[in-house]
Amino acid sequence: MGPEKMKEIITDVLKDVDVVIGYKQGFDKLHATPCFINKAEQIEEIIWSPVCVQNLASFLPSLKAKKVGVVVKGCDSRTIVQYMQEGLIDRSKVVVVGIPCTGVVSVKKVLDKVNHQPIEDVVFEADGAILVKTPAGETKLSLADVSPDKCSTCLYPTPVVYDHLAAEPIKSVKAPEDVYKDVEEFEGKSLEERKVYWEKEFDRCIRCYACRNACPMCVCQDSCIAESRDPHWISQKSNLSEKFMFHMIHSIHLAGRCVECGECERVCPMGIPVNALKKKLNHDMKALYNYEPGVNPEDKPPMYTFSVEEKKIEEHKL
Amino acid sequence: MSEIAPKELRIVGFLCNWCSYGGADTAGVSRFRQPTDLRIIRVPCSGRVDPLFIVKALLNGADGVLVSGCHPRDCHYTDGNFYARRRLEMLKQLLPYLGIDEKRFHYTWISASEGQRWQKTVTDFTNQIHKLGPLHSTTEAHSGS
Amino acid sequence: MRVGVFICHCGSNIAGTIDVAKVAAEMRKVPGVAFATNYMYTCSEPGQDEIKEAIKREKLNRIVVAACSPRMHELTFRRTIEKAGLNRYFLEMANIREHISWIGLDKEANTNKAIESVKMAVAKAMNNKPLYSQSFKVNKRVLVIGGGVAGMQAALDCADGGLEVILVEKSPSVGGMMARLDKTFPTIDCSICILGPKMVDVAQHDKIKLYAYSEVDDIKGYVGNYQIKIKKKATYVDWVKCTGCGACMEKCPAKNSYDHFNFGVAPTRAINIPFPQAIPKKAKIDPNYCRQFVKGKCGVCAKICPTGAINYEMQDEIITEDVGAIIVASGYGLVDMDKFPEYGAGRYPDVITGIQYERLLNASGPTEGHILRPSDKTEPKTVVFVSCAGSRDKSCGIPYCSNFCCMYIAKQAILTKDHIPDSQSYVFYMDIRSPGKGYDEFTRRAQEDYGAKYVRGRVSRIYPKGKKMVVVGADTLLGTQVEVEADLVVLATAVTAAPGAPQLAEKLHISYDTFGFYVEGHPKLRPVETNTAGVYLAGCAQGPKDIPASVGQGSAAASKVQALFSKDMLESDPAVAKVNENTCVGCLKCIMTCPFGAVKEKELRGGRIVANVIETVCAGCGVCTATCPCGAIQLSHFTDNQLLAEVNTICQK
Q1: C625 at B interface, C-beta within 8 A
Q2: Is residue A121 in some structural domain?
Q3: How many other CB atoms are found less than 10 A from the CB of residue A300?
């Protein structure tokens, strides 16, 4: 799947939008970076490969005033649907260039495999193998080995919403029941084990807020209650309960809204599994309301609506 | 805290003004005996209860949290408790994932006339929390708990 | 911040199980507390004066009163501090009576709990901001739901006071239960003779708009400004054209229709006027029995009607009325006889209910006032009355007393003797409850002058034996079994909430108890108010009561409405949501969840979108505040910081 078809589409799209957001190469071949195209001559910069990991849909709410074209993978496209559900974008002002995707790489996993050597070149071979060249030599990796976890259970390789598709649609070969296998597995641990696990993970948090800042569904941005005095939910103290509280704020605000793009986890400098709590919440929303974020534009996020008779909620007895 | 008798645990209750707070009043007027652990915070509606208040309490020293609102369909504000039910159920299911026993958090519906039901709820919930014991180890929690 | 704390003894109600002096002493140690004291009765005039004086003397700017429930005296103390120049929202109350002193005897634990509860109130008070009401116009029209005697009294009193009244009655005529009664106790006045003129007044009053055979479909709004949707149910008779001549009723071939007005004592016609004194006196078709509806052909009434009023195509109609207050007088129901298998569960025709017996006694009833057994239309010589059929019976789910059965049984026993001089009445009773003016004398007359035999005990079984009904019961005074062979048995079936009472309460946002009766504002001091501003109660909707009590409540509710409407403008509750436009990110999730549509989108001059609360529409529930992820929309008086201050007082890790 070359970027040629995509470039053709973008050339076309650019004629009636203010800007197209795509990927271009970053500071080395392992890193892609978002690029904002408003002139035809920039189109040549555009790339598409499994290093294109960022969720470009995240930029849409802040560009609400403009007409925007955006390149999205299947997973990213759910962000757009969720924005539509929440009225955060005007769909008529967004042109979606969808890319059916067979998986991206986790930069962290690749770097781990090559012992964090400087990257000289990365080549994606037709058979799915990845050749990573470092001063120490060439390493051949398989995409499956270095994909982020989300790719291994991806149900939406083809975008759920698009105006143009840059390649033939791909059908998911993953089993829907596997999506929340990790959640269910974790639920198998004892209460004490779970408590110890989270306390250890959250204790490592440095409250850099990168997870929040990268989250496409975090609407508050600079008005985050984690950094406010009015209301004053948490102090600046760097103890466990305050760190824990911050993650609870982020998770609960994402209840029934997280599209599982995994950006929060990707950007965490401490490697904290920040997405896990949101997956747990999604797992519950699916069970309680048969709701899956970012799939159907007509749905209403479950926390902003209700049924008079909740079929799945039973009254709790003491 | 010094005010808390050593035998007490720390239980926070969020009660809606129109039904459950009235139910607790009714229980008081009827002199229905209850354990003394519970501290009541009055809110206009169970729909006002941000689940984060409960998390905040549990992370900061509470051993149990109780939320009570009007019965479904009988909300003073029509729909407040319907939103509350979804939010509180979400939290109820999330807590054990964090390693916090879901029995430490209970939400229910009690009307202003149900003094007896209130008494039973407070008594049973307090007993349940005592069975679970303190959530926080005595060294990290405030003295006395 | 200079907080003043006032701990009330409430006589011994609080001081009996809480060391109030210690609570006050502990409060003096709390940072921010400038003054703390304890007082015998803080709500008394000298108690309130002490608060006012302390505010001036100690320059206090936040006040905490630790006393009874804020549901009881919050308004009292708000007024007190306002008189001393403080904003009324600078008051916080700690409920140390209902929630502490009355529910535990352990003085030490109570005192500790009180100290912490007052600390919570202090912490919250320190976060209290001054709030100011807005005034809004009152729509001086009142909706009365229910056209029984309580509703009619309320409607007439309001209308006589110059208010426009919308009276909604679900049955085809006003009059309610009282219109069905033959006589009233203890004067043996003819019921319809004293009620009829009131019914006519209701119909003729130029300030009363009557919607009969109508129900309240939907209620929106708040005190002063309600929008009511009224469903006018299809009568299939154009009431503008109908003259009430009754020709249709005479000729209607469907003669076996259930007679709702007569509680099925005898059948009626499918098209009928419920009773001769009905207001409005208009005919109505019961489509469950009408041949035109059941079989698709007949049309006799349409042919006979001299004014062409019959309209088989008529549909329910929704009408909108705007009002400023609502009086609920929706009445009561009666427990079904099928609750009593031991009394035949309604299978024996000669076991009837008290209200059915009223219809047999009544001159305009189906038997024209002749007491005739339903089974064979003969005059009964032995009549047994069974009181507490369901009432005071936990197994029936009705632990309460139905209030007026003892009295009407005595009346019916007297009337039985009047109608059939050689008859003998027996009354099985648990206790005789006759605590009204002239009431006890009345029950004695039934026994002493009219020879009714009163047997103290419950009836265990009723069964047929030939033409008789055998009533088996106990005489607990003699300690023996009693068997009476009766010709007719009358059960004083328990009073229940009106059918649909909970659904109506939900539309009104008022509370109802386990039995469906509506909960008054205070059991002693606010008997006709509800906890919802602008909604008042009258009659049996609030609980079983007799006619004078219902009439009294009707008038009381009307006077409450008059008082409410004595002002042109009402003050809004300022404890509503407010948006911090600096931090609002315009995600507008608050609009998605507000139950009242009180939040709207607003564009700032720079083009930025924020949420905006319409203060008079906001009811102050705080659903938006719990929705807003960035804490930009805060419910005043219950802000995140105020509640967090309370949480932090309890939980300080």
Answers
A1: yes
A2: no
A3: 15
